[in-house]
Amino acid sequence: MKKIAVIPGDGVGPEVVRESRKVLDHIASVDPAIEFGFEEFPWSAESYLKSGEMMPPDGLDMLSSFDALLFGAIGSPLVADHITLRELLLRIRGGFDQYVNLRPVRLLEGIESPLVGVTTADIDMIFVREGTEGEYAGVGARLYPGSDREVALQTAVFSRHGMERVIRWAFELATREGRSVTSVSKGNALNYSAVFWDQVFDEVAAQYPTVPTQRLLVDAAAMFMVMDPKRFGVVVASNLFADILTDLGAAIMGGMGFAPSANLNPERTFPSMFEPIHGSAPDIAGQGKANPIGSLWSTSMMLDHLGYPQWGDALMKAIERVMAQQCVRTPDLGGQSSTEEMGDAVLAALEAPPASLTPKL
Ligand code: GGG
Prior knowledge:
Bound molecules: glycylglycylglycine
Number of strands: 12
CATH architecture of the largest domain: 3-Layer(aba) Sandwich
Order of helices and strands: EHEHHEHEEEEHEHEHEHEEHHH
Structural class: alpha/beta
């Protein structure tokens, strides 16, 4: 049995995660080789307002024996964003050494990109975002608060160990998939951290002489994602740069509702976590308007990670089929369908993979 910890979180999180649960329950019901054991953790801004903590002090211990974590969204107008993000999501990413934050950016057939004249072949890139250090390291101070001498210090952490391992992971992915690797940094301005990043990138790249590479400044990368998205294959970047660029990526693939992510601990010492990249969208929460595709796509990545790639692939094909048919459309796609109707459509399109491929795990 695969144990899945479910953290629906805030806002639209519970609504989109419900659709993922539905699909996983269905898979377990039709495939005798698969059994999921779910446990739900109600950690959210709402629980913070009652308990004063985003997760219990031993929260990571509570999660550590699970095979994977399925996460919804976090954030509420009632709690400061740096509390909800840092004290839950970033504690999990850091505590479980989830240093690969994998974020595919791909335009699906039937979805209109805001970019004029692009096809599905033009937007197909995979971001490998560093997930544990960089600008998100949480190192800094506020000095002399409230005075006119007030100072904020926020120190980014770029370790050789941290950069080397994520850049190497990106090259391994590119090698498997026959893609190029683009490194994104800002070496002209960040004369310590980004120059070090560029140096480590070049050192790792030299070990993969057959993989085409390019190095881009983050501002140029943003421009090329709009003007020439086809030039990107695998993209590796630091925590903040890749976070910003993947929101742009979500926009060019049709909207925030689509974009999936996997926070991977590649060594599998700790559980990995799967979440749509969108936030809690409090403005539409509880109205059944959220697009669950980002969560369902993340669930497909979770199935791959759990050792069920045939089901991960089947779920992805179901998503692609529903998008291509253009019948079921949530409001972000200009339609009237609900979150639940979109989830049901994907479920109806899900075809069981050939039984011979089902592993007996
Ligand atoms: N679905 C996860 C979520 O709620 N993300 C909100 C967010 O602000 N994430 C920032 C990040 O991924 O670093």
